[in-house]
Design a protein that fits this description.
This protein is mainly α and 88 residues long. The protein has one domain (3-81). The protein has 3 helices and no strands. Helix 1 (3-26) packs antiparallel against helix 3. It is elongated, with a radius of gyration of 20 Å.
Length: 88
């Protein structure tokens, strides 16, 4: 896999993992009028909290991988000559 597709895959994985955490904490967005009015948030179970923590650890790992890949790409681009970027 080339560097750009690796970055793209990690980027999508980062968002998917975040959405899993968001789903655990905020679940259905179709809350009742009164829950919105009184700003009542759904309660999260201990098992969901543990799962969210696992997802968060995955999120941290993917974030670090993504930053490493972006750093590698930046170093590679910086090493290229200016002529490489000019139109021919």
């Amino acid at each position: 896999m080339d560097r750009l597709s690796t970055i793209e895959t990690l980027h999508f994985t980062l968002h998917d993992t975040y959405l899993k955490i968001f789903g655990l904490y905020f679940g259905e967005m179709n809350r009742s009028f009164f829950s919105k009015l009184f700003n009542l948030k759904p309660k999260i179970s201990d098992s969901d909290k543990a799962l969210a923590k696992e997802y968060f650890q995955q999120l941290e790992g993917v974030s670090m991988q993504l930053l490493d890949e972006i750093g590698r790409l930046a170093r590679r681009l910086n090493a290229m000559s200016a002529e490489s970027f000019e139109e021919k």
